[in-house]
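Subject: Dihydrolipoamide acetyltransferase component of pyruvate dehydrogenase complex

B.,
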Amino acid sequence: MPEYKHFPLADTAEGLTEADIIAWQVKPGDTVTVNQIVVEVETAKAAVELPIPWAGVVTELLVEPGQTVEVGAPILTIDVDPNGKAAPAPAAAPAAEEAEEEMKPLVGYGSKAVVTQRRARKGAAAPVAAAPAPVAVAPVPAPVAVAPAPAKPKGGYVPLAKPPVRKLAKDLGVDLHALTGTADGGVITRDDVHAAANGSATPAATVSTVDSGYDPATRERRVPIKGVRKATAAAMVQSAYTAPHVTEFLTIDVTPMMEFREKLKKSREFAGVKVTPLTFAAKAVCLAAKRTPDVNAVWDEAAQEIVYKDYVHLGIAAATPRGLVVPKVRDADSMSLKELAIALTELTDVAREGKTTPAAMLGGTITITNVGVFGVDTGTPIINPGESAILCLGAIKDTPWVVDGEIKVRKVLQLSLSFDHRVVDGQQGSEFLADVGALLADPAVAITY
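Prediction pasted inline below.
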């Protein structure tokens, strides 16, 4: 008898409770293999592709793209025994623990799957049984009904389009919200995007105001708060109202740093390595944190302790199409300038592509945010929860500066440091900011640290 399993939404990172379905990679009738990617979801931390831990035939997709689903809720049904026959036992069966290990998926899941027999006719109860391992097992009937699919979300029209089509639309500057898909179910195709780019597409006038969130009477559009934006808002509110923020500012001449950067670009050691002001700032933060460990500590309210970290997991705030994310460079304090440059390049590239994993954004100790890339002079950043300080880099600008009693045009940068006054006193915060400033004003100072 065919054996049906419900694939639950996995807890892809500690503490996640829900995720939004972005796009399905399979459809009913598709044959899938173990650990094949079947769906892309957006959690409160990142976009994640989920593999399925079984082989079989997809029988039903239980949720639609755009829906928000709680962790553990079933999102797909699969027939793991499409031929109606149990899989034959291997010639030399391994020990029980080894067999169980062999059947584990490559990606862990937070919830066990629910195993059911073929769905009963209307009016009949659907017997359900728990599976001890993802192999063909005789189900034990139990009077538990299969969980219904989550209700369709209200408000906030989500365009139905696969990731390649979304990328094409982004590259061509086409707003998917303004299109009506011509494929089955209103899915937007590549042809729809190309037609819109050429000015011949049919606008999404047929989309109801309830689905789009737009009200012609008020000329306003309402978008549900979810995903990365929802998580960022909650974290910032928590931080702003639990940690007493203090922000200090420092303006420095970084002409020597910029000249040193040009020398490194021409050196054989740094050939092909992207060295930016952020690279120098990252190195400066790691060096300065060793002299002022308070900025790399954290207030533990529950334990009533201050926890000092003997390592620097450096967070880098990055603006992405899905919102603000803060991936970490692990053990940044143990890296050379070149290693930091390479790590930062990889980290920012992955973030901009929206492929930062949830695990990469956990466990930071101190953060850098660079508003200078937007031409902004400075800011008063909010500390990330679980940390005690965040450094903000402004834009580097040609500015009149007094040098040896004469006014000259120099490369000038404004720094700002926000810190948790429960952990960091004004003296420690000022000393740390002064150290970072000194290292950026003259990189040769680093040899004295």
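The chain has three domains: 4-130, 163-223, 228-448.

T.
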